């Protein structure tokens, strides 16, 4: 835990600490004698405490695991050895800190975490090592619960309680989560912070680097700093807050009667998150402040002595660890994590799909690529098959590989022929697994280009089923009561004699090099309306723009060929729509056949 921060609401921390009357820790010479230990030795956990954990606490923790405190202590032993190899310290700017990061990172990567080293590029001490971030890649990515501790020590000692205890507890909790692999309702992200002892600098840099959208995803941050103090108490940050309730419930189940962490307020990394408006809580067992008589009566230990007599000193080694407190803390961390992020019901397997880049330009005859990335957003990883639609003539789209396991990526290659028409074309990339997701990609074929005369509408005579028409495709068929202009099928819009609307749409790309594009269609209108008022209408639209409107007043005995100029849409992807609308009485039928969109 950092000794001071610069300011609190415009008041210096030095003044704040003086007002709080927090005495300094006694010297090593004043420490309790070994004949009268304050707590059980390093590996001795009371039978009563262990039994309580296996009964009441376990059932209240929604099947949270019992974290093996011996494994937490093994991490502390290694952190102590790292400090011993590096001048007795793991300060943020030294090799001891960087070795601590490497130790934790290797274990997290082997367990399957997404692990990132984040260099602190501003605000940190010269030479400070990186933050270490590890995220478990399961659960709702829009709902993140974060658990953090600072990994650095002061220069004067190895920092095994401050803060190897929080760091090791989080590391073993993370490894247990990976081993248990429960169904996740939310994402869990762990952070080990650099340069806390110099002013909360690593966590401050991390929070400052988050976008507002990323900050909003973090539903709570839990901090663990000095959770194994030899003469410690049981303290919770923001004890009465909603974020604190899972932590308090666990310690309450052990009869510990935790108190508010007033000594640590604003002095550890939770403050960086709190300042950004993120709910925070966490465990602590105290630093240089002294235990009261009431606390000693409640928790044991020695009244009027510092919670940690080795705070910020060289004696903060593995001999400075309260194993019972460490065990209660790490099991409470697991209970909290399981409460907020684990679900009893396995969520449906789901994934996300993105294209990077999401647009590309290419000369006719050349090719371009994009990386199609997937991620598991809930449940387990699954096979995702990739495809693309919307490519114009002269463009082929391929994927390598054609299928990926969610979390993997594929290279999409868009190859064009020399005759591909210049223009901008919106494509849709589709990923199909247990569910289907799409992502857009925009392809621009450069050059003015020429124009190859062609007919762009597909199935304009309605003889080949309904594809690719969308909308009220039940209007397409060989219906009794009307006849086709050619062939046997047509689209009969309207004709109900009551309030109704029918639409048929098709999307096409008009090549950029074409100076002329003409829509031609045959339309037969018959009606039971008897006067010359337009009660029932037929519209042709491109997008939201109406190109023409006809009505019951245009009725005739047979088909009439009609044409519209669509040349202004050259180089665009358009949606062409036929819409018939009737009022509440007297039918009007609008029968469409043999539609074409000819370029030239």
From TrEMBL:
GO terms for molecular function: aminopeptidase activity; metal ion binding; metalloexopeptidase activity. Residues 1-30 form the signal peptide. Residues 131-335 form the Peptidase M28 domain. CDD domains: M28_SGAP_like. It is found in: Secreted. Monomer. Residues 366-378 have a biased composition (Low complexity). Gene3D superfamilies: Galactose-binding domain-like, Zn peptidases. One of its GO terms (biological process) is proteolysis. Keywords: Disulfide bond, Hydrolase, Metal-binding, Protease, Secreted, Signal, Zinc. It comes from the Bacteria. This is Peptidase M28 domain-containing protein. SUPFAM superfamilies: Zn-dependent exopeptidases. Belongs to the peptidase M28 family. M28A subfamily. One of its GO terms (cellular component) is extracellular region. Residues 358-378 are annotated as: Disordered. InterPro entries: M28_fam (IPR045175), M28_SGAP-like (IPR041756), Peptidase_M28 (IPR007484). Its main location: secreted. Its cofactor is Zn(2+). It holds the Pfam family Peptidase_M28.
